[in-house]
Design brief:
By secondary structure, the chain is mainly β. Helices cover about 5% and strands about 30% of the residues. The protein contains three helices and 39 strands. Strands 1, 2, 3, 5, 6, 8 and 10 form a seven-stranded mixed β-sheet that branches. The two termini are about 50 Å apart.
């Protein structure tokens, strides 16, 4: 998503510098106009002086002005804009990066606001929508840091991807009952958002919709919601309670944490809780992506044998997490699962596991030993990168089976001419033997306390 936005920004920057030089426009004061092909109407092409206060006329040369062109005021220095009742369409990127623009009132005539229309207007404080707008487009207010007040009208039915991404001035949001869809990252990284009221008609909450809203302490999910996508409430540092209305047929809450209705999927642990211990219920078979990410208080987690799948980044950045027993029912360690778990000192990977994902134990800086079963056939890139304390690898196979493991050595850091799993490779490796070996080499076994011990 961010890469797509960057490419759009770079390409439109070029367009913004060249559009006036090559387009055939008519002038009226500070504005330029183009007649819309096939219509007796004009669109606003842009501004000549690119600063100050702009008033768009409702007519030009006796014909109505109905559109504001894509990127019309891109990165200009305008301070205010008056949009007349004749305008029906505001084009994509129309006011993006107008960082002196503070207030906009969108008249009732406007039915369409293009994607990224006000993106990067970081001094924009207030926006008043028309009652004719039915959808808030993709990234329309992306990175509008100064936006403090938004009233979403009852005409709106969908809030698109990244619509209010990183609007750090927002403190309260009321999503009206007319809205049925909240898109991916719609309110992600709104750091000062402390209150969200989700309307009773919302059916879908997209990936990362409220992720990184570090001011939220609670959230209530209405009966109408049938789909909550991955990481919708992840990284909400002080979130202590997720409540699901009892009439919801798809989800439920247990002790303030979010589960599927049948209890088989633990979707989101409320990471603002202060408890240091958590026992995953026996009903759970799947721990969702980023379910415990950044749960700073948790030191101990008990995972039952019922769990067969642990999602990507499920326990990433759990800084004080020191004790996790992965059950034999789990068959793979997903990408980023324990990324940044700096309190790990040792980890035992069960015999059921066949693959260890990329970045799985990245930056587990205090990890000193790991038990790897002979069932493992692949280890992803950077799986043990940054594990500076890793000294011992207890492998439950022999030298031949170790060499058959597909260990990814690709390094994302071009300045480093070394394997991304160098710490794993260079650690002292011991091979498993139940009885004391008679041949020379490095071997280990489990002692009476179940701890790896060198022969």
């Amino acid at each position: 998503m961010k890469k797509k936005l960057l490419l759009s920004i770079l390409s439109l920057a070029f367009v913004g510098m060249t559009a006036f030089a090559f387009s055939s426009c008519s002038e009226d004061g500070a504005l330029r106009f183009t007649k819309i092909k096939g219509k007796e109407e004009y669109r606003v092409q842009g501004t000549i002086f690119s600063k100050g206060d702009i008033v768009i006329p409702s007519t030009y040369k006796g014909l109505p002005v109905t559109e504001i062109k894509t990127d019309a005021f891109w990165s200009s220095s305008i301070k205010s804009i008056v949009i007349p009742d004749s305008i029906t369409t505001i084009g994509e990127y129309a006011f993006s990066w107008c960082n002196k623009l503070k207030s906009v009132e969108i008249p009732d005539s406007v039915t369409s606001i293009g994607d990224c229309a006000f993106m990067g207007c970081y001094n924009l404080e207030n926006i008043k929508f028309s009652d004719s707008v039915t959808s808030i487009g993709e990234s329309v207010f992306f990175d509008c840091d100064g936006l403090t007040n938004v009233v979403i009208p009852d005409s709106v039915t969908s809030i698109s991807e990244s619509a209010f991404f990183s609007c750090n001035g927002l403190t309260n949001v009321v999503i009206p009952d007319s809205v049925t869809f909240i898109g991916e990252s719609a309110f992600s990284d709104c750091w000062n958002l402390i209150s969200v009221e989700i309307g009773d008609s919302v059916t879908t909450i997209g990936d990362y919709a409220f992720s990184g809203c570090i001011g939220l302490t609670s959230i209530e999910i209405p009966d109408s919601v049938t789909s909550i996508d991955d990481c919708a409430f992840s990284r909400c540092n002080i979130l202590k309670s997720i409540k699901v209305c009892e009439g919801n047929n798809s989800y439920k809450d247990i002790d303030g944490n979010l589960y599927s209705k049948d209890g088989s999927v633990l979707i989101q642990y409320a990471i603002g809780k202060v408890e240091d211990t958590f026992v995953v219920p026996d009903s759970v078979s799947i721990i969702g992506e980023s379910a415990f990410e950044m749960a700073d208080s948790l030191a101990n987690i008990t995972i039952p044998d019922s769990v067969i799948s642990i999602g990507e980044a499920a326990f990433s950045f759990c800084d004080v997490l020191a004790n996790v027993v992965i059950p034999d029912s789990v068959t793979s360690i997903a990408d980023y699962t324990f990324y940044g778990c700096g309190s790990f000192t040792n980890i035992v990977i069960p015999d059921s596991v066949t693959s260890i994902g990329a970045f799985a134990f990245y930056d587990c800086i205090n990890l000193t030993s790991v038990v790897i079963p002979s069932s493992v056939s692949s280890i992803g890139e950077h799986a043990f990168y940054g594990c500076g304390g890793l000294k011992n690898v207890y492998y439950k196979g022999n030298a031949e089976t170790w060499e058959s493991i597909d260990i990814n050595h690709d390094n994302i850091f071009p300045s480093e001419d070394k394997s991304s799993n160098e710490k794993l490779i260079n650690a002292t490796r011991y091979y498993y033997s139940e009885t004391q070996p008679t041949t020379e080499g490095k071997y280990w076994y489990y002692n009476e306390d179940g701890e790896p011990t060198v022969w």
